[in-house]
Specification:
The chain contains twelve helices and twelve strands. The radius of gyration is 25 Å and the shape is elongated.
């Protein structure tokens, strides 16, 4: 059985209303009375009316779609951010197109260019580990194309940014370990190119300094692709095992899982003697062995805010000149809680 494609004209004819009145009622315009809105919406539901997105986009010169570019959709943090983005986007009648670039700056740029060429109304981006040159993004922003950065953000003043308080999260992790009696704390982190790496490393250093502990460069290991490739974690673990440390602060989900895997494969290593804490939004950290004390970001809320800022920018009547950097607090989730 084929579905009938009803139009606004069909509704207007059936209810003896003008097409403009029906259109405004469907968009919940303040210009239309509550009784008329109720009449139109009930009839639209009865006939299973669905707006024609192509016709709407042609009329308003908008696609009613936003792009989201992340390194990996399977990452716990990014999947939760996407949930937050979608909750706002769909409530505003925007579709969400998601792309992943697997820490590749080339794929990141290809995704941006593809989404832009398909008339996407705006983009939400967390930069890749390889990204150094953002000239092409600055060019799009300069042309008035809405872009909001989240989590991994550039040093730009002409855009909205949504981040977690990475420095405080790092500091809290070190303070927790010091309170547990740890004195030689290692740090496993990502590439120096990313804002989150630099900020979490600063928090690590602040925590050491606040407790009178020395900063030992040999205890800090950078994985250029953030643990996306297990061999870079294996190399970092090999180097760390040549040092003495009684705890480790890890800056991300992939790195944490990879570190535990690498350590378990090393004969003679007693994991119970090295306490682990780090940034992770996994809901199963207490099921790991050993469990990880988590520094958790409010990922869903970050996604909501990023989407709100983007849609506000898309729908603004005039160019936005006052850009915000929204900083969300992190939460330390102790083992066994």
């Amino acid at each position: 059985m084929a579905f009938e494609n009803y139009t606004i004209k069909d509704i207007a004819k059936a209810l003896n209303l003008s097409t403009s009145t029906v259109s405004r009622a469907l968009r919940d315009s303040y210009e239309i009375s509550a009784d008329t809105k109720k009449l139109v919406l009930e009839y639209a539901e009865k006939i299973n009316y669905r707006a024609n997105p192509i016709a709407r986009s042609l009329k308003e010169r908008k696609s009613y779609s936003i792009g989201v570019i992340v390194t990996e959709i399977a990452n716990n943090f990014f999947s939760q951010v996407i949930d937050g983005i979608e909750s706002v986007a769909y409530s505003k009648n925007y579709q969400v197109v998601i792309s992943q670039m697997r820490e590749s700056s080339v794929r990141e740029r290809l995704n941006v260019e593809h989404l832009y060429s398909r008339s996407t109304d705006g983009l939400l981006i967390a930069l890749s580990a390889e990204t150094m040159d953002i000239t092409y993004l600055e060019h799009l922003i300069g042309k008035g194309f809405p872009i909001v950065f989240f989590d991994r953000v550039p040093n730009l003043a002409s855009c909205h940014k949504v981040i977690a308080d990475n420095r405080q999260g790092g500091f809290d992790a070190i303070q927790y370990l010091v309170n547990r009696g740890k004195r030689k704390i290692a740090h496993l982190t990502g590439t120096k190119k990313l804002s989150i790496t630099r900020e979490r490393l600063e928090g690590y250093k602040m925590g050491l300094e606040a407790n009178g502990l020395p900063y030992i460069p040999a205890l800090v290991k950078h994985c250029e692709y953030g643990g996306l490739h297990q061999d870079e974690i294996e190399q970092a673990v090999t180097e760390l095992l040549q040092e003495e440390y009684d705890a480790i602060f890890i800056s991300g989900d992939k790195l944490s899982m990879g570190y535990l895997q690498a350590m378990k494969e090393r004969p003679g290593v007693d994991l119970t003697k090295i306490e682990v804490t780090g940034f992770t939004n996994s809901k199963a950290v207490n099921l790991l062995s050993p469990p990880i004390t988590a520094v958790r970001q409010p990922a869903f809320e970050m996604g909501e805010k990023a989407a709100e800022l983007l849609i506000q920018q898309i729908e603004a009547k005039h160019p936005i000149e006052d850009f915000q950097t929204i900083v969300f607090p992190t939460t330390l989730i102790e083992q066994g809680i």
